[in-house]
Design goal:
mainly alpha, Addiction module component
């Protein structure tokens, strides 16, 4: 069996390639260990880190509020 490595630039390319390989009935394996943050992800994280933490709530409290608001 041969191995081919493909480096995709974004999620759109990844989805396109997965769909193409599935249509062609070519088995493939994704390596999820090679994850890098995009510039957009880094920007969002940086903005979040600059926010005032006095108004922050933990994850459990956030889920509690979402459940109460949307009935989940």
């Amino acid at each position: 069996m041969s191995t081919i490595t493909i480096h995709l630039k974004d999620k759109e390319e990844e989805t396109l390639m997965e769909n193409l390989l599935k249509k062609m009935k070519i088995s493939f394996e994704k390596n999820e260990d090679d994850f890098e943050l995009t510039d957009e992800m880094k920007r969002v994280i940086d903005e979040a880190l600059k926010q005032d933490r006095s108004q922050s709530v933990d994850g459990k409290e956030s889920l509690k509020r979402i459940r109460a608001k949307y009935g989940l």
